[in-house]
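Case study B.
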Amino acid sequence: MTLLAALDYASVVIFALTGALVASRAQLDLVGFVFIASLTAVGGGTIRDVLLDRNPVFWVGQPLFIGLAAGAAIVVFFTAHLLESRYRSLLWLDACALAVAVPAGVAVAVALGHPAAIVLIMGVITGCLGGLMRDVVCNEVPLVLKQGELYVTCAFAGSGAAVLVLWLGGAPGVALLACAGVTFALRAGSLALGWRLPVYKSFPPRQ
Amino acid sequence: MTLLAALDYASVVIFALTGALVASRAQLDLVGFVFIASLTAVGGGTIRDVLLDRNPVFWVGQPLFIGLAAGAAIVVFFTAHLLESRYRSLLWLDACALAVAVPAGVAVAVALGHPAAIVLIMGVITGCLGGLMRDVVCNEVPLVLKQGELYVTCAFAGSGAAVLVLWLGGAPGVALLACAGVTFALRAGSLALGWRLPVYKSFPPRQ
Amino acid sequence: MTLLAALDYASVVIFALTGALVASRAQLDLVGFVFIASLTAVGGGTIRDVLLDRNPVFWVGQPLFIGLAAGAAIVVFFTAHLLESRYRSLLWLDACALAVAVPAGVAVAVALGHPAAIVLIMGVITGCLGGLMRDVVCNEVPLVLKQGELYVTCAFAGSGAAVLVLWLGGAPGVALLACAGVTFALRAGSLALGWRLPVYKSFPPRQ
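Model:
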């Protein structure tokens, strides 16, 4: 349970940083930074908790999560201009956030005793939906949909790794570590080395 | 209850096909197809279940729904290039999906004993919101908002037909059949024959 | 509780008017007006109720809310051409809606005994998310994100005023009045006098 809490806190803070970076690209004011950062930080976990009927939703029971997201947003507001490339920083922070949010989703579903399929899906939802909301609200091309990059695939493979380890009788901590590792490795490989899956192609593309 | 299950399964599979077709227009990879197809397939019913506090959400209790959506996405990934016009196929599949999802929403609200107004609204929500999420996430013009076409109107009229049949003392099965028939007939008439309602017009259009 | 009900009704009707005005900008038909108006009218309060696990969701327990939203949409459909500037009307109606929806969110969170941080957040969520959904669905630039305008800030300051009054031992009615006053005054000052916070700036803006 302590590991789960650590994952939740880490994913909230890192996703908040990505939300604040997107807010900086939209040239918002400080309150706008806090708003987008909070939405991104708790979005995926909130949907997970609502779907699993987990009461209270994690940040309603512990508002410190929102305070952390707000703090992260404030730090970014005053320091983002120091970054060499905000977009590149955004991509790598988002990769880290994904790699802690996916195991956070997996851990909750496992703790509630759900079957493997739901564990898999909750990993993907918790990992991907906060960033998706951030991008839809800020009118960025969702990272989830970027052509020629692995994104949902990483979350899916990471969740799958956790399910596999558990099925083989591994300890929950090992499963979560494998989950984070696989998720980050695939996303980093996609960002740094261009790993990808074949995409659907047709000509003309929109008929 | 068997009829309700059949409606749920049919609407999940058909909406998944539409989601996969939109994913093909966005040139996603296979996992992207599965993600968008699942979002579209279970989106409307999920919101219905959350709003009505129906626990567990239908696909959390029965993950086979997600498996079916994934299967439909995989089929589309490998066969969509065979279609003569993917957009035309999308419109007609979406019409079919609407015509089964609206009665699925109506059936749940009736089974839970809600009044006519809520039955009406749940039909519209279950029918329209999965496709709306698909279009917002994929940055398509939502079908819900397409000018000069009937869409929400079809869902609304279909739900209304079900409520009317029930109010007149008809059997639930008859009400759901009427609902599906009216929904599909109106949508098909709009697609094939250009049926429409007068729209709001003003010049200049955006002032 | 009567004050709370009055706030809920007022915010539903006024937000419905704003939703219908956006629908008029998108040149939708009458059913489209009702759909967008209802989404805008009950969106924020619905998310508040789902997050706080308040059952039933306010409009599911009292469908009259949707009827009022539909009525407001119908009135706008037939009279919007009489407005001199629909966009200006939209902005000012939205300011009024914000100023009643924020205290409505605050009141619910207080009534359920939540701590100050959650009260603050529920004020912001109830005030801002209905309009945000309206703008995302209709593909308008979300008011929440408009550069050089106060929006979330107004909701945040209004909620903060309510929390402060309550903490000082003020009566709930006074707190809600202060909340509405602060929210509206800030938003009106931003619209009429150009009040704003410094925004994040960088060159080039998107790197």
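The longest helix of chain B spans residues 86-111. The remaining cases will be described in the next quarterly update.
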